[in-house]
């Protein structure tokens, strides 16, 4: 019975954070790259994000079928995982001339940096497969 206790809610590290340097362009006063902090999330949180990126569209014979926008899903997943910097901070958004966390992230990072961050978020959250494969699974 003692092995079962490992699965009790208080025992696994569900909400873990990890520091990760996304870009050498963001430096502290000493000139060192500032690491971002990303967190893990539960499947319930992931499911909510997936639902928010899914729309009903007309399919064959006029039936409505769910369709997940993979770019929207990935952006929402990354934003939900970033703990630091605070992407919801109005002052930070203003400094880039954008409104919204997803738009901020896409404006402040270069394409390769965004891809690296997205890959790290997926790895930290236990996704071993490509995001497109996951979206296909969600559709089925």
Automatic annotation (TrEMBL):
Q: Origin, by domain of life?
A: Bacteria
What name is this protein filed under?
Phage portal protein
Organism whose genome encodes this protein: Paenibacillus glycinis
């Amino acid at each position: 019975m003692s092995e079962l206790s490992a699965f009790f809610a208080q025992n696994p590290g569900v909400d873990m954070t990890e520091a990760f340097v996304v870009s050498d362009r963001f430096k502290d006063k000493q000139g060192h790259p500032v690491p971002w902090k990303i967190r893990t999330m539960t499947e319930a949180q992931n499911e909510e994000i997936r639902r928010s990126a899914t729309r009903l569209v007309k399919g064959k014979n006029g039936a409505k079928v769910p369709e997940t926008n993979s770019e929207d899903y990935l952006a929402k997943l990354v934003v939900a995982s970033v703990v630091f910097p605070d992407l919801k901070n109005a002052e930070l958004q203003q400094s880039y001339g954008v409104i919204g966390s997803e738009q901020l992230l896409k404006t402040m990072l270069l394409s390769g940096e965004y891809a690296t961050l997205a890959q790290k978020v997926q790895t930290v959250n236990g996704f071993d497969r490509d995001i497109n494969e996951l979206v296909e699974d969600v559709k089925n």
